[in-house]
């Protein structure tokens, strides 16, 4: 009898263990799903975050020469300048309106460096103009280098032209109606367009505004951004059929985009890089000395993006 009771006790004990294990498994299963739900949340957050293109950063060999070309030929305004002698460089910011609401180019001059390699991956910046023919004549009269005469784009109707700035950066001039943001595109070439589109949608919360395949000229372009392409600056990604690698040189550096939270942004980017490639190159946090919070990363093609805390950026502008 005692033996039977003993056996019964063992069996019920085993049952209890089994039930505990089942409950534990269910709980850990639920736990394993939590990050997925979390992933969903951060990705949704990234799409709702208050973002806008702030500036494109690149290096030039002579600040005054570029400022003269951009103001006299391209119609930009010089917005601010700063010299950082401790680090042996100076910056100039130019654009078509105040940086609080407009995109800008941030030129970097490194003391003593007068030449850079632009590489084959960087495409162009673009300027929208109501009369590209007239703009080109003005630029030519001032000695500018027109590399493509105005006329309809190959395979389309929009009137475009190309000019080269003193360092060799290309500006596409695009004919369109009045716009609040004439500095309207940063074009970069990528080796896998769908991967790049997914990356910018997920990691940067951008919308795919337009995609156009031009088989006659063997390329596809995608416009990505935060608002209509005729109202704000967009990122134009170009895929040339069969070309997966480009050189980056050392001239063009990055685009900066605003965010309300660099820490959350970095968590999103980190997740997306695990799926699509690319990597965080600077963990989120304040820049020593300036205190503006940033995080930066490379996309799957190696193009650099910096996310900048919006409130810190506006404070920085107040100090200028
Ligand atoms: N192979 C070109 C593909 C992109 C392309 O052709 N873009 C159009 C503008 S969207 C262009 O530059 N067209 C030249 C023209 O119309 O002369 C590249 O990599 O730049």
From TrEMBL:
Alphabetized Gene3D superfamilies for the sequence: 2,3-Dihydroxybiphenyl 1,2-Dioxygenase, domain 1
Chain positions recorded as Zn(2+) binding sites: 106, 124, 172
Q: Which pathway does it serve?
A: Secondary metabolite metabolism; methylglyoxal degradation; (R)-lactate from methylglyoxal: step 1/2
Originating species: Iris pallida
Tell me where in this chain the VOC domain is found: 52-176, 182-310
Listed GO CC annotations: cytoplasm
State the EC number(s): 4.4.1.5
- Tell me, which GO biological process terms does this entry list? methylglyoxal catabolic process to D-lactate via S-lactoyl-glutathione
Q: Which domain of life is it from?
A: Eukaryota
Molecular function via GO = lactoylglutathione lyase activity; metal ion binding
Its needed co-factors are:
Zn(2+)
SUPFAM superfamilies assigned to the protein according to its UniProt record, in alphabetical order: Glyoxalase/Bleomycin resistance protein/Dihydroxybiphenyl dioxygenase
Q: Which UniProt keywords apply?
A: Lyase, Metal-binding, Repeat, Zinc
The entry's protein name is: lactoylglutathione lyase
Q: Which Pfam families match?
A: Glyoxalase (PF00903)
What reaction does this catalyse?
(R)-S-lactoylglutathione = methylglyoxal + glutathione
Q: According to the record, how does the cofactor bind?
A: Binds 1 zinc ion per subunit. In the homodimer, two zinc ions are bound between subunits.
Q: What class of enzyme is it?
A: lyase
PROSITE patterns named among the record's database cross-references: GLYOXALASE_I_2, VOC
Family per similarity comment: Belongs to the glyoxalase I family.
**Active site residues per record:** 172 (proton donor/acceptor)
């Amino acid at each position: 009898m005692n033996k039977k009771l003993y056996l019964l006790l063992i069996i019920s004990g085993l049952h209890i263990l089994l039930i505990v294990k089942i409950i534990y498994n269910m709980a850990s299963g639920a736990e394993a799903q939590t990050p997925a739900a979390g992933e969903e949340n951060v990705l949704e957050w990234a799409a709702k975050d208050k973002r806008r293109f702030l500036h494109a950063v690149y290096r030039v060999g002579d600040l005054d020469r570029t400022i003269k070309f951009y103001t006299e030929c391209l119609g930009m305004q010089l917005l601010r300048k700063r010299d950082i002698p401790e680090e042996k460089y100076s910056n100039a910011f130019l654009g078509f309106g105040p940086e609080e609401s407009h995109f800008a180019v941030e030129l970097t001059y490194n003391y003593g460096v007068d030449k850079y390699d632009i590489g084959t991956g960087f495409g162009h910046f673009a300027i929208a103009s109501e009369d590209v023919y007239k703009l080109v004549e003005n630029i030519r009269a001032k000695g500018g280098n027109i590399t493509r005469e105005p006329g309809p784009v190959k395979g389309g109707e929009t009137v475009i032209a190309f000019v080269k700035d003193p360092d060799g950066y290309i500006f596409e001039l695009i004919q369109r109606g009045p716009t609040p943001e004439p500095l309207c595109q940063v074009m970069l070439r990528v080796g896998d367009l769908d991967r790049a589109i997914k990356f910018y949608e997920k990691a940067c919360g951008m919308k795919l505004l337009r995609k156009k395949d031009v088989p006659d000229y063997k390329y596809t372009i995608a416009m990505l951004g935060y608002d209509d392409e005729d109202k704000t600056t967009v990122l134009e990604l170009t895929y040339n059929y069969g070309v997966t690698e480009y050189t980056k040189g050392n001239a063009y550096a990055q685009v900066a985009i605003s965010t309300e939270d660099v820490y959350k942004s970095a968590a999103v980017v980190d997740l997306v890089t695990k799926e699509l490639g690319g990597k965080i190159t600077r963990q989120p946090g304040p820049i020593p000395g300036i205190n503006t919070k940033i995080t930066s990363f490379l996309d799957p093609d190696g193009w650099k993006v910096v996310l900048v805390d919006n409130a810190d950026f506006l404070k920085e502008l107040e100090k200028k």
